Amino acid sequence: MKRNIVTLKTLGLMVALSLAAGAAAPVQFGLGVGLLTSGGEESTPTVSAPIRFGNFRVEPAVSYYSNDGETKYNYTPPNNLSDNTYEDSYYSFEVGAYWLKQIAPSTELSLGGRVGYSWYDSTSEYPNVPNSEGAYESSGFYLGPTVGGEYFFNPHVSVGADVSLLFASNSATSENSSYDSEGENDAMSLQSGARLRFYM
């Protein structure tokens, strides 16, 4: 609980400082779409709502992916492995706050950070094995510094890329026919993103 309070305070401070610094600047609203990738994991689609004022940008974003399928095995007894079906889902909501610096014509550097909350759940089953259903759920806060760049084709359309070093603190539960477990885990990951933004 204490970690969650610290993370929420960090989020509020990031947004408040950005809003205060750019209070007198004209505000420009936008819409962004992109893909986020952590390590070798599957890319996650994301939709964001960038808000620019002066040399600052605040960017709320929502990410989601769902994946389901079936794994088939061709082994024969006595080394038989049963077919397996699975379904994974991931959701996240975050806010980023960035300081912007023009480094070349139509090109900006962004420095800042992101903080958010994510949910992940996974279910699996071996149809040929009785009572083989399993489920895993994980959720928690993450935050970390981000550096990126943005190139403007014109004042209303840009393409960008960024890299974040994210620290995540999650609680997880696992259930199957043999045992149930729950616990907490902390992890650090390097996440990269590619984004297309449209500004009004």
Model description:
With 200 residues, the protein is mostly beta strands. The protein has a single domain (2-199), classed as Porin (Beta Barrel), CATH 2.40.160. 10% of the residues lie in helices and 68% in strands. It is built from one helix and nine strands. The chain has one helix at 2-21; strands at residues 27-38, 44-48, 51-53, 56-71, 84-104, 107-125, 134-154, 157-175, 180-199. Strands 1, 2, 3, 4, 5, 6, 7, 8 and 9 form a nine-stranded antiparallel sheet that branches. Strand 7 (134-154) and strand 8 form a beta hairpin. The chain is elongated, with a radius of gyration of 21 Å. The two termini are 39 Å apart. The mean pLDDT is 83.
Q: What's the level 1 CATH class?
A: Mainly Beta
Report the β-strand fraction as a percent range: over 45%
At the fold tier of CATH, the topology name is Porin
Tally of distinct domains = 1
Overall pLDDT score? 83
Distance between the terminal alpha carbons, to the nearest Å? 39 Å
Topology as H/E string? HEEEEEEEEE
Poorly predicted runs of 5 or more residues:
none
Q: Please state the structural category.
A: mainly beta
CATH architecture: Beta Barrel
Shape, principal axes of CA atoms: elongated
Sheet with the most strands, sense and barrel status:
9 strands, antiparallel
Radius of gyration: 21 Å
The count of helical stretches stands at 1
How helical, in percent, are the residues?
10-25%
CATH homologous superfamily designation:
outer membrane protein from Thermus thermophilus HB27
How many DSSP E strands? 9
